[in-house]
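Quick one, probably user error.
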């Protein structure tokens, strides 16, 4: 890689070849951490958005998905946890305000790419806001929860902790307010607001801009 990575927002059903390369990168990353069960490829439909960091050969280095909910396509958190806790009721309680999910953050770690996970997460939050959502839901286990709290994630204690995707993890459901970004660290709050305006104008930016 000779240039600075680009961060691209695209809809998965419009770029299926790129989505397939994204999924290969995610599966490889999750396999290294022994959580391959959480890297199943979701159906490609208009409600699945991808935020991918790409090298200058358009090879994905990191990414995260944003899922819009509709009756035919439950959110990934519902598919993963609805047999374990009343997740669907918790989501319905936030209606009619639109709720989206941020899911499946991954980063290639050979070579290490410090700061790229944060850049992708800020861009994903900006995409959620552009889509008009007011709340974002996701899953976070004990090792990454402090990271997501920097972006305003709040644990829904009523939904409990779950051994997902393997017994080594205590995974909790988290929500965040996309309108106020309440609880986000000041620098992350400012970064998400700035990226929201940048991504409204164009669906791509350089890593340094994120």
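Nope, works fine. Designed sequence:
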């Amino acid at each position: 890689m000779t240039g600075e990575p680009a961060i691209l927002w695209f809809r998965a059903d419009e770029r299926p070849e790129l989505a397939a390369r994204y999924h290969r990168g995610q599966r490889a990353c999750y396999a290294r951490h022994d959580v391959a069960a959480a890297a199943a490829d979701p159906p490609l439909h208009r409600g699945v958005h991808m935020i991918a960091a790409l090298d200058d050969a358009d090879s994905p280095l990191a990414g995260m998905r944003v899922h819009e909910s509709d009756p035919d396509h439950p959110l990934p958190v519902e598919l993963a946890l609805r047999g374990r806790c009343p997740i669907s009721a918790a989501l319905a309680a936030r209606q009619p305000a639109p709720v989206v999910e941020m899911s499946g953050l991954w980063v290639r770690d050979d070579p290490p790419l410090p700061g790229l996970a944060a850049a992708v997460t800020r861009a994903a939050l900006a995409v959620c806001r552009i889509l008009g959502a007011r709340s974002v839901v996701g899953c976070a286990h004990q090792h990454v929860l402090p990271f997501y709290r920097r972006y305003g994630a709040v644990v829904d204690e009523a939904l409990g902790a779950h051994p997902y995707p393997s017994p080594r993890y205590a995974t909790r459901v988290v929500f965040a307010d996309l309108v106020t970004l309440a609880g986000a660290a000041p620098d992350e709050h400012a970064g998400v607001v700035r990226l929201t305006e940048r991504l409204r104008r164009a669906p791509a930016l350089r890593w340094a801009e994120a």
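The mean pLDDT is 91.
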